[in-house]
Amino acid sequence: MVIVTKEISIMENTLNEQTPEGWHQTFITLWIGCFITGMGYSMTMPFLSLFIAELGNFSRFQLNIYSGLAFAITFLSQAVISPYWGSLADQKGRKLMCLRASFVMSITIFLVGFATNVWVIILLRFLQGLFSGYISNATALMASETPHSRSGWVMTSMMTSGVTGNLVGPLLGGTLSGWFGYRIPFFITGILMFLTFLITFFLVHEHFSPIKKEELKPLKGIIAELPNVKIIVIMFFTTMFVQASVMSIDPIVSLYVKELMHGQGNISFVAGVVAATPGLGTLIASSKIGHTMDHIGPQKILIIGLAVAAALFVPMTFVSSPWALAFWRFILGLANAALLPAVQTILTLDSPADAFGRIFSYNQSFQAAGSVMGSLAGSTISGAFSYQAVFIVTGIMLLFNFILVIFNRTKSLS
């Protein structure tokens, strides 16, 4: 939070003349809301597979598949429903979408703590996906409220909120799980998400003019107005591949740590540290990358980030201790700071303001599709082969994404 307020004070003089009244309060509130959402996710998800393991006598393959399914089902339902929520956001505003997401998530996450079998968890995760989307809608809200000259900084700052939460969450979740069991983090997260609902309701001000359903431009009309349809589509697929690279590892990271530790020691805490290290790297790099993006353009930042991220999966394949894995994941976090914020900045600069909701919702659908693809691929590959094979496949996927962006880059964004 100190980092954010410092950044705001540095830029305050230049922003005051360009931004709507109440911009800073809205920004800080949404930053906190995204922080809580990110923290709640990372406080529970890295340990979901260990929680599932306590609910039955599963084989290694079954545990990997159930863990992957529990992760993926949320994003599958999210991918299907996101275009509907995006259309509604363009009619009613993004604040309403943030309220909808935080309120329902507070209920579904809290109830997971009472689950007695894996299918209850999967059902609740499915319902959570239908109504989730706080961070994406908060990002879209800030994109619509921010001058284009500062889009890079705002997009990376919004990412910093979730990343900071992702940094704190695993450490807190690992500690709580080790002391009180795996259910407590779900109860705490549910309560915090309800707090997010309250602060969003009372403190966020959106300068939005409602659009009647019949006045919404059809998808064909939006596409016709896009200055570069090709780059928008490439960014959708980039979002999918980047998210898949994250989610291929997340469902199995605690199980991989358990294997590296040979089942000995405080596995929950060490797994929490390993899960948190990318967030630390992203937090350190995000502000610098955001300012650099505003100077040299988001496309160059994206290309560099993809190249570095793909290369880093090579050493992660050969680690023999959880601390070596944590180190390389920290370096990966530095590269991750250049990925999704760059994509979101490109989408912001190349999308009409009255279609932000739908463009960002389509991007969210691709992000959710990437989560499904990554979760199922990671759990299936690790169950059938090895955890190391997951890193190899993920690195190859990011290399393909790098080549895709290189051959489809545009001069206007370079």
From TrEMBL:
A Gene Ontology cellular-component term: plasma membrane
Major facilitator superfamily (MFS) profile domain span: 26-413
GO molecular function (one): transmembrane transporter activity
InterPro entries: MFS, MFS_dom, MFS_trans_sf, Tet-R_TetA/multi-R_MdtG-like
Transmembrane segment boundaries: 28-53, 65-85, 105-127, 152-172, 184-205, 226-247, 267-289, 301-320, 326-347, 387-407
UniProt membrane topology term: Multi-pass membrane protein
Compartment(s) of residence: Cell membrane
Extent of the signal sequence: none
Keywords attached to this entry: Cell membrane, Membrane, Transmembrane, Transmembrane helix, Transport
Database matches in PANTHER family: MULTIDRUG RESISTANCE PROTEIN MDTG (PTHR43414)
Name listed for the protein in its UniProt record: MFS family major facilitator transporter
Organism: Limosilactobacillus gastricus DSM 16045
